[in-house]
Amino acid sequence: MNDKILLKDCSDLSRRIDTDRFGPFVFQPGFTVAAVELALHRVEDAHARFVASPLSQVANRLQQEILVSSVFGTNTIEGGTLSEEETASALTLDPRQVQAVEQQRALNIKAAYDLSQAAARTPGWSLTTEFIVDLHRRITADIPDEDNRPGLIRDNPKTRVTYVGDAAHGGRYKPPQYGKDIERLLSALIAWHGELEAAGVPALIRAPLVHLYYEQIHPFWDGNGRVGRVIEATLLQAAGYRYAPFALARYYLQNIDAYFALFNACRKAAEKGRDAPNQAFVDFHIEGMRQTINTLHDRVNRLVNMLLYESRIRRALDDKRINARQYTILSMLLDRGRPLPLDEVRHAPWYTSLYLKLNDKTRQRDLHRLRELGLAFLGTDNALWPGFVVPTNIKPLGKPESP
Question: How many other CB atoms are found less than 10 A from the CB of residue 9?
């Protein structure tokens, strides 16, 4: 990692910005060093273990899974209705094949991710207004909505007031309404981030602080949440974190009530002059990164085990230790990546076709041999498990048993 663990106080990095109509707006670190040091080290340790794992063997598969999960997560947070499977399908579409607004939303988020990843890979890249506007333009492109104004900074007329939040998550907040105030604050946020970076504040701290204040400025008519999360992910990626920055969207979705409530809680704590008003959001973010990295590490290990299992069953077929029917059964288990109830197997068309002209004894022998070789396990719940996952309770081998 290029970032250094934070070792010094940075309370002198607070900045007050005076606006024309909104009043003073204060950017402040709002956390204490002692409260974050251990959590930062835990994330660094988790990330070090993660990047040392056999990522190269499964990088393409992992990247695709994260893309789908992240687009699904960040889209659902903002009211998107596509399921994860529908999201995966939408991301494969050619733009000319798009037939629904929800599909367009998913493709737009992917386009923003592409811009983010390109920026993070660019030596010397820094956050700019132009980058943020371009993100928004991509995220909101071709979405038919009266509040959808791609790349246009919000400037409320007197007849229109923008509010953020709701009573269930700490109340409604009235962000800046005047366009020039918003532009000034957005520029100030970018400059302030540069000061934090120059002072050696780690990305694990800078990213959530920028996310927090960006949402308070709320510069666009729509799409602010999606843009804010991509900005955060870009800052983390640029600092060297792999995969987790986008996967973090799933953590936010899983903890959506806390995520929404913390924006208001931190703002109110600052208004009341409390010490370390941003501590809760920073802690929430760091814990999210730790959990996300550990989850990805587990997923890499599982994917590698699946690859080894695939090679193992192929060798078993080539060595004639199993037949083509048995190989098909194992391949189906591998594709599912989960245990299959015997009743489900019994009625599956692919399975019945394997034994169309064979008797029960043949089915019994085939299954018994797979269990004997440890290529499949039968749980006490009568589910058939692929050989790369060992169930807690394995049914004793005993006599041949047919599914």
Answer: 11
Distance between first and last Cα of the chain: 51
Give the integer Cα–Cα distance in Å for 197 and 214.
17
Q: Please check whether the two domains, 11-299 and 321-403, share a CATH topology.
A: no
According to the model, what pLDDT value does residue 351 have? Answer: 95
Task: Indicate the SS3 state at residue 166.
Answer: coil
Q: Does domain 321-403 have CATH number 1.10.10?
A: yes
Q: What residues form the annotated binding site for ATP? A: 222-229
> What angle in degrees, to the nearest 10, is found between the helix axes of 203-217 and 256-271?
80
Q: CATH topology for 11-299?
A: Fic-like fold (1.10.3290)
Q: Is the pLDDT of residue 342 over 80?
A: yes
Q: How many CB atoms lie within 10 A of CB 344?
A: 14
Residue 4 predicted with pLDDT over 60: no
Query: pTM here?
Result: 0.91
Q: Would you say 305 and 350 are in contact if contact means Cβ atoms under 8 Å apart? A: no
Active site amino acids? 218
